[in-house]
Amino acid sequence: MFRGSIVALVTPMRADGSVDFDGLGPLVDFHCEAGTDAIVVVGTTGESATLEFDEHIEVITRVTEAAAGRLPVIGGTGANSTAEAIALTRAAAEAGVDGCLLVTPYYNKPTQEGLYRHFKALAEAVDIPQILYNVPGRTAVDMQVETVQRLAGISNIVALKEASGDLQRSRELVDLCGSQITLFSGDDDLACEQMLMGFSGVISVTANVAPRLMHDMAAAALAGDADKAAELDDQLAGLHRDLFLESNPIPVKWAVAKMGLIPTGIRLPLTPLSDQFHQSLNDSMVRAGIDS
Question: pTM to 2 decimals?
Answer without folding.
Answer: 0.97
